[in-house]
Amino acid sequence: RRAGRSLGILGVASNVDELLSVQLHRIVRCLRRLETDQLAADALLEGGGMWAGRGTDMPAVLSQQAGGDEARPMTLAAFAWGGVWTDSFVGAFSHAYTRALLREAVVSGRGAVVLGSSLGFEAYAIALTFGIPTVGVEILCSLAELSEMARKKLYIPVSLARFECDNALTYELPANTAIVYADDTAWDPPSLAALAAKLAFTLPSGAVVVHNSMQGWQEQPRFKLLHVVEVVTSWNPKHRVYVHVATPT
């Protein structure tokens, strides 16, 4: 169920019947242009550019979350920006167990959730590489809105990808979640610990979590480490990504 499968073969309704790999190429190109100011955000969304919307959102979120303590675990460092290259990123899903889970998800309709989806790169990579329904959750509403507007502009079916503005630590995961990717590289330690505890409590047995920090995970015996993968990012050519599976409670 790789990117070479068409939407028709996957049984997904769309305005166009084209390879998922073509859709992935188009959406990544669109998002990169937004990211680098080659495409004005108001071509997709009324208002200022991507960076202007992000700059407006951050103070509002920090006023609710800032402090870096257990009650308000977020600081400005959590909004650090960087890029992960898609062809390298999908290597985090290469373990035999994860591949089998992805195949099962395509057949059963189970889905993936990306926590901290930003502009949507990783969410689109999962949805359009593996053909499973994926929800991106982003606390900065302007980014979630841009992700959705890009999806509509390029006719990516909502049955494959959609985006919501919400807090990853309070977001209610769909009951059929098979895969979670947490874009938690820059998150503050209390947020990382809270995320590990939340997923330990809510994820169904057998679900896989892909994430970027081991902070807080050692305290959650329910998770078994499957493997560690090095992926290429804009800040580190050998950035470590951790893959855990949820064991029975």
Strand order of the largest sheet: 3-2-1-4-5-7-6
Proportion in helices? 25-40%
Which stretches are low in confidence, meaning pLDDT under 50 for 5 or more residues running? 1-17
Largest sheet: 7 strands, mixed
Sketch the topology as an H/E string, one letter per element. HHHHHEHEHEEHEEE
Gross geometry: globular
Number of strands: 7
Count of helical segments? 8
Radius of gyration: 17 Å
- Specify the structural class: alpha/beta
Gap between N and C termini: 30 Å
Mean pLDDT: 83
* Strand fraction: 15-25%
Describe this structure in words.
The structure is a single chain. The protein is an alpha/beta fold and 249 residues long. The chain is 36% helix and 17% strand. It has a 7-stranded mixed beta sheet with strand order 3-2-1-4-5-7-6, covered by helices on one side. Strand 4, helix 8 and strand 5 (208-211) form a beta-alpha-beta unit. The protein is globular.
SSE topology sketch:
Blueprint: H1 7-10, H2 20-35, H3 50-65, H4 86-89, H5 96-108, E1 111-115, H6 121-130, E2 134-138, H7 141-153, E3 161-165, E4 177-182, H8 189-202, E5 208-211, E6 223-231, E7 239-246
Parallel strand pairs: 1-2, 1-4, 2-3, 4-5
Antiparallel strand pairs: 5-7, 6-7
Helix pairs in contact: 2-6, 3-7
Brief rundown of the structure:
The protein is α/β, with parallel strands linked by helices and 249 residues long. Helices cover 36% and strands 17% of the residues. Helix 3 (50-65) packs antiparallel against helix 7.
